[in-house]
Amino acid sequence: MRGSEDGAAAAEAAARLDRMLERVTHDLGAHIGLTYLPVPERQVLQMAAVVGAPRRLAWPWRRLALAAPAPVQEAVRTRRPVWLADQQELARRFPRAALAFPYAVAHYAAPLVAGGVCWGALNLLWPGSRPEGLSGAERARLDEAAGRMAEVLRDAAAGGRPIAPRDEPLVMEPSSAGRVEPAAALAERFPEGSASLDLAGRMTFVTDSAARLLGCDRAELLDAELWDALPWLDDPAYENAFVAALFSRRPTGFAARRPDGSWLSFMFYPDATGISVRIRPGTARDGEQEPAEEGLPTRPARAGTLFQLLHLGSALTEAAGVSEVADSLMGQIRPVVDAQGLALVVAEEGRMRLVAARGFPSELREYFDDVPLATPTEGIRTIETGIPAFHATNDELLRGYPRHRRYYEAMTAFAFLPLAVPSGTFGCLVLGYDKPRSFPADERAELTSLAGVIAQALDRARLYDANAQVARGLQDGLLPRHLPRPPGLEVAARYRPATHALEVGGDFYDLIDFGAGGAAAVIGDVQGHSVQAAALMGQIRTAMHSYARMGAPPEDVLARTNQLLMELDIDLFCSCLYACIDVPGRRVMLASAGHPPPILRHADRRTEVLDPPPGLLLGIDADTRYETAEVPLAPGALLALYTDGLVERRGTDLGFAVDDLAERLAAAEGDSLDALADMIVERAQETAAPRSNDDIALLLVACGEASGRTGRTGRTGGGRPGRTGGGRGAGG
User: Fold this and answer.
1) Is residue 372 classed as helix, strand or coil in its secondary structure?
2) What's the pLDDT at 497?
3) Which DSSP letter does residue 420 get?
4) Element (H or E) spanning 693, and its range?
5) CA neighbor of 113 nearest in space, from 77, 140, 88, 137
């Protein structure tokens, strides 16, 4: 019984909230009003009710991610109202939101705060723009309404009957049931067709002339949605004109081709109760352009343009460094904005730097680069003020900057768009056009919004590059700058960082010189990509140097290093291979801690994959014991040590990959060890995934005379190298 009473009380409170939304929307003259309630466990705001928009159009915005940069979420996060006078202001402050909502409206978003808690949000939309802002009386009315709505939510929660978001928002819209269209007889006398749509897009009235133009009976059209009754109008570009008219309350239009090939021109005239439609014969030219009607805005972006913008947004999300962002822009943005020239410039160290450009004449590209910020140019003015500039022709630029006349004459029309982030404006996107361009208000808003999205991607990419540079510097500092040259040995080493990893890697190599007695070659791979992994790598190198110079055998060097890692109590492990090369004794002693096997190329170019006794990775078990294997190392032999990034490929058996490396070593031509190292690494990079997160390290050690005639690769059974001695071999 108590449960049903609580449910009834919560429902009554929710109904009060809905009535308050309906009242404030009407009193303030807004054409659409919405309320949102938080869903804390999902970090979203969910639409509770909407006035003035049908369910189908409200549906895409029924849930808002609380962390997303958009007006309603900003109001909730800051607990301060957000006022946006027009679409351009939305594009400037919330570029991503403006791309998703490209309609000419003024926005007001207010948090519903009571008792120090934000209980939800109120969102009102007005058609067109309101540059004059809200009057004092309107703000007072809004504050009062938001406060009373918050109190309803607070009191319901305090009484143990909180108002929860509905599964689907309540839609409050004017009903068209039983509506009689006035002056129907008058409309029938016009040769052009007339029709009326309700807010859901259903046809509530259609003249005989309109039915004839559309090629349908009136009975088929009435009470049907335009797009369902006429399949040839079922296109996002056409439906978007209806959506734009509904949200902005401004006339919009488009031209469409009938199945018989003839063209029709459609114009939408909206108000708070529905949309009047004028239909008349058109031409093919109307299909290529917007219906020419003085004083009326063009239709919203074409479906192809919207797809291009979504594709660009996806590409920018995937791009990491500045070069990747620039490549995405140069390849994809020009079709979107229909510009012949595009340049991306940033302010760095007191000068304007060109990041990328395409389509501009060479002299204009030079003009964008290495220009002191004290120079008076339109691009620098845009960076300094953060205000976009649109020039339908170049006349104003030629008058304003006579010293730069030859540059601005290169194009007929220009747009200078600031690249701005919360910390300030750091660059400019320059668009050039070879014909005059009017830049209507909706296009200006779209371009400003697009520049905002590009600015966020480019700012993130610049930070990525800066961090990557620091990481690479740290990596280079931890690896040996120069390897020693012990008597009787020739050495070549290569390191290549992961192609798409920001953090510093843990791959390392080293050569410890024992003088005339030989040397120790070390290679290893610390788990992960992080500063902690790099620091551990440095500690391992230092420790192994100490243990090796104390004369410890290979198994003891690994055991003591393993003990050190256990004492450090770090949740990282490391694979490692330690090779003690005895030059006078013509032998190498190997100990492995879970590392890929080394490859030995004999003087006759026969290669052998060595199989030292397996050992557990360093840093797993303090009591692990390691074993040493001794392998002959004659003059002219070459030992190849490497990390898994050189051979490991998704979908490829590791054993086959190692054997393939052995075959390439056997078949390699040339006398230079450095050339051989470069060839091996380049081949590995060619076969690596485009966004590999694995570093590559390679250490080649040649004993005595390592070069000579090219060897042949012998194969047994399925092309895999045959076995010789203690390892797998490829012979000549």
Assistant:
1) strand
2) 77
3) E
4) none
5) 77
| CA atoms of 377 and 401, how far apart (whole Å) | 7
What's the CA gap between 531 and 126, in Å, rounded?
52
Where does the pLDDT of residue 694 fall: very low under 50, low under 70, confident under 90, or very high at 90 and above?
confident
Q: Phi and psi for 700 in degrees, rounded to 5? A: -110, 130
Report d(CA 59, CA 73) in Å as an integer: 17
Residue 176: C-alpha distances to residues 200, 566, 684 (Å): 10, 77, 69
The arithmetic mean of pLDDT across residues 536-541, rounded, is 86
Q: How many DSSP H helices and E strands does the chain contain?
A: 23, 30
- CA 237-243-244 angle, to 5 degrees, is 90
Measured at the alpha carbon of residue 275, what is the angle toward residues 270 and 279, in degrees to the nearest 5? 110
Residue 725 has pLDDT above 50, yes or no: no
pLDDT at 597: 95
**pLDDT tens digits, 112-168:** 999 999 999 999 999 878 888 888 888 999 999 999 999 999 999 988 888 888 888
CA distance 145 to 127: 21
> In sequence order, what DSSP letters do the residues of 621-657 get, joined into one string?
-TT-----EEEE--TT-EEEEE-GGGT--TTS-HHHH
Pairing outcome for strands 371-372 and 629-632: unpaired
pLDDT digits (tens, 9 = 90+) for 602-620: 998 899 999 999 899 999 9
DSSP calls for 376-415: --HHHHHHHH---EEESSSHHHHHH-GGGHHHHTT-SEEE
Q: What count of other Cβ atoms lies within 10 Å of the Cβ of residue 380?
A: 20
Tell me which amino acid residue 405 is: R
Interval 405-415: pLDDT, tens: 888 888 899 99
What is the CA 445 to chain-centroid distance, rounded?
A: 22
Question: Cα–Cα–Cα angle for 30, 33, 37, nearest 5°?
Answer: 155
Question: What is the strand order of the sheet 638-642 is part of?
Answer: 489-496, 696-703, 638-642, 599-601, 607-609, 727-730, 722-724
Helix, strand, or coil here: 573?
coil
- Find the DSSP H helices in 178-268: 184-188, 208-214, 218-221, 226-229, 236-248
CB atoms within 10 A of CB 362: 9
Res. 188: pLDDT tops 80? no
Cα–Cα distance for residue pair 537/546, rounded to 1 Å: 14
Q: Which residues contact 521 (CB under 8 A, 6 or more apart)?
A: 509, 510, 511, 578, 579, 581, 639, 641, 699, 701
Per DSSP, the residues of 669-687 read -SS-HHHHHHHHHHHHHHH
Query: Residues 558, 626: contact at Cβ < 8 Å?
Result: yes
Distance from the Cα of residue 160 to its chain's centroid: 43
Q: Which amino acid is at 294?
A: E
d(Cα 539, Cα 536) in Å, to the nearest integer? Answer: 5
In this prediction, residue 302 carries a pLDDT of 44
Facing residues of 372 across strands? 351
Check: CB of residue 497 under 8 Å from CB of residue 469.
no
